[in-house]
Design brief:
Layout: H1 3-14, E1 31-34, H2 39-55, E2 60-65, E3 74-80, H3 92-99, H4 104-117, E4 129-135, H5 141-153, E5 158-165, H6 168-179, H7 186-202, E6 213-216, H8 221-230, E7 238-241, H9 256-262, E8 277-281, E9 288-292, E10 301-303, H10 305-323, E11 330-334, H11 340-348, E12 352-355, H12 360-367, E13 372-376, E14 382-386, H13 388-400, H14 406-420, H15 428-442, H16 446-450, E15 458-463, E16 472-473, E17 480-482, H17 486-494, E18 501-506, E19 513-518, H18 522-540
Parallel strand pairs: 2-4, 4-5, 6-7, 6-8, 11-12, 11-13
Antiparallel strand pairs: 1-3, 2-3, 8-9, 9-10, 13-14, 15-19, 16-17, 18-19
Helix pairs in contact: 1-4, 2-3, 2-5, 3-4, 7-14, 7-15, 10-11, 10-14, 10-15, 13-14, 17-18
Bound molecules: 2-acetamido-2-deoxy-1-O-phosphono-alpha-D-glucopyranose and magnesium ion (MG).
Pfam family, one: PGM_PMM_I
EC number: 5.4.2.3
Binding site for Mg(2+): 68, 282, 284, 286
Length: 543
């Protein structure tokens, strides 16, 4: 790094001093926190993104400003690698180091060391770097995006391109397309999704009239983008509520996280919606869950990520059965939060089920090991990954099949699904379109879909503790290794309940320890959850 580069980094870092006592970690999904404290973090992630782009030159990197399901006053930042996947985990420790560097001088010396170690060539006349920036609808997003732009441009030869308000999956999709040399605008995203959606609808053998779907847009970017998408589609009957324009607050008693965790209707939904198929997005539209009201009360029937996964798995498997394609390795990936009944159901279908740590970066990695890998977190974040080799095999196969035959239709469906469902990351918009197609294909109502299996009652509790990092778990997060003795105490509680299951882990996105409990009745699940939460408090102290 030459003197001019060092001076440029020092000058731009002076503009964004680190707030006192801020301690951040890249976590499950990037850096998150109170938006007023994040300018230095976002600026530094701008620098990191430029370095990543130079390291992998020529390539475009994505930088997304969002705090997803967290409250509106929070914000955050996460990075997309050129593949459209999450930032390589190998770079996360460097991200942590620079985000927490106490002074511009220390920051620059860390960057200097890293650039040398990684042999990144800056301003050497090689390929320049490019970072595409997106943000959700949070009011703090604009100023933070500006901080990111300044960070990106303080690295010589790197340019920041502001793509404005986007969902997280849109940005990931666009970055992936750009690096593959494909058309990569937001319009291309909408066109690609709607073309494959129409193709799948055309391939439905017995088309029935479809009923109305109601979307809870969580007062965020997802509702806004679904309104744009509606303009591209004639065959989707959808009503959009909680768009953010009707006075509601982002994620406040609305959205996928609220609906999935609380199991009650979001604001804006009520007695008039009994029996209607409804869907909720989260704040950056990378998660979706379906639900319906079975009575006039607030309680809902929830169709979570596990049920969406099961629906997708059935559909894909049905197509593979038509092809009699025993050589396609189809697998599903879940986390410890997956409802035990869903895992039993999937295994009962003869599917290979594997487990990963919480956070889509972990699930994505495992799903990519299959020809077709379906992954979902129970909270509704997931997608279907098709290996490139398998898609080309399908495309070649289609050429040999007679048009309109069952085999040809099955191949066409699979290829269309690979174009519809976001290959970069879980995407509420493309997930919604695929659920709608599959339900119509099966001729199923949301109630019928819900009957695939019955969820075991479960309960999630958040416990605020002085230091959540005191909880250390095994790699699949089902057992706590620290604090010493807590797992034995948890096991003691679990043993008291029929089909009891419970685990704890530190959240990667909130300053809490999470407790998950499952049992055969809701009372038992609640009681198990509460007693494990009590154990957490007594081992770690409450804050
Ligand atoms: C139990 C739960 O829902 N955890 C969520 C949540 O992570 P935590 O590390 O649990 O805070 O946010 C992540 C990002 O959206 C998501 O991937 C994950 O599934
Ligand atoms: Mg999200």
């Amino acid at each position: 790094m030459d003197e001019t580069q060092i001076a440029s980094l020092l000058k731009s870092s002076d503009l964004f001093p680190l707030p006192q006592s801020l301690k951040l970690s890249y976590g499950t999904a990037g850096f998150r926190g109170d938006a007023t404290l994040l300018a230095s973090t976002v600026h530094r992630v701008g620098i990191l993104s430029s370095l990543r782009s130079l390291k992998l030159a020529p390539s475009t990197i994505g930088l997304m400003i969002t705090a997803s399901h967290n409250k509106a006053s929070d914000n955050g930042v996460k990075v997309s690698d050129p593949s459209g996947g999450m930032l390589s985990q190998e770079w996360e420790p460097f991200g942590d180091q620079i985000a927490n560097a106490p002074s511009p001088q220390k920051l620059v010396s860390l960057i200097r060391e890293f650039v040398e170690r990684e042999e990144i060539s800056i301003g050497g006349g090689g390929e320049g770097g490019e970072v595409w920036l997106g943000r959700d609808t949070r009011p703090s997003g604009e100023a933070l995006l500006r901080a990111a732009e300044i960070g990106v441009s303080s690295v010589s030869g790197c340019v920041a391109v502001n793509k404005g308000v986007l969902t997280t999956p849109q940005l990931h999709w666009m970055v992936r397309a750009k690096n593959k040399g494909l058309n990569a605008t937001e319009k291309d995203y909408f066109e690609s999704l709607t073309t494959s959606f129409k193709c799948l609808i055309d391939l439905i053998p017995n088309k029935l009239e479809s009923s109305k779907l109601v979307l809870d847009g969580t007062n965020g970017v997802g509702g806004e983008k679904m309104e744009v998408l509606k303009g591209y589609l004639s065959n989707l009957d959808i009503e959009i509520r909680n768009t953010g324009r009707d006075g509601g607050v982002l994620n406040e008693s609305v959205g996928a996280d609220f609906v999935q965790k609380e199991k009650v209707v979001p604001l804006g939904f009520g007695v008039n919606d009994v029996g209607v198929r409804c869907v909720s997005f989260d704040g950056d539209a990378d998660r979706l869950v379906y639900f319906y009201l079975s009575s006039g009360e607030k309680k809902i029937e929830l169709l979570d990520g596990d049920k969406i996964l099961s629906l997708f798995a059935l559909f894909v498997k049905e197509q593979l059965n038509v092809l009699d394609d025993g050589c396609c390795r189809l697998g599903v990936v879940q986390t410890a939060y997956a409802n035990g009944a869903s895992t039993d159901y999937l295994k009962g279908l003869g599917l290979e089920v594997v487990f990963a740590k919480t956070g889509v970066k972990h699930l994505h990695e495992k799903a990519a090991e299959f020809d077709v890998g379906i992954y979902f977190e129970a909270n509704g974040h997931g997608t279907i990954l098709f290996s490139e080799d398998y898609v080309s095999l399908l495309v070649d196969k289609r050429k040999e099949l007679s048009e309109g035959s069952d085999e040809c239709n099955a191949v066409s469906r699979l290829v269309a699904v690979s174009n519809l469902i976001n290959q970069a990351v879980g995407d509420a918009i493309s997930g919604l379109l695929l659920v709608e197609v599959v339900l119509r294909h099966m001729g199923w109502s949301v109630q019928k879909w819900n009957e695939l299996y019955k969820d075991l009652p479960s309960r999630q509790v958040k416990v605020e503790v002085p230091d959540r990092t005191a909880v250390v778990t095994t790699s699949e997060e089902t057992e706590a290794l620290r604090p010493l003795g807590i797992q034995d105490a948890i096991n003691g509680e679990i043993r008291k309940y029929k089909r009891g299951r419970a685990f704890i882990r530190p959240s990667g996105t909130e300053d809490v320890v999470r407790v998950y409990a499952e049992a055969t009745t809701q009372e038992d699940a609640d009681s198990l959850g509460d007693s494990v939460a009590q154990l957490v408090k007594s081992f770690l102290g409450s804050s």
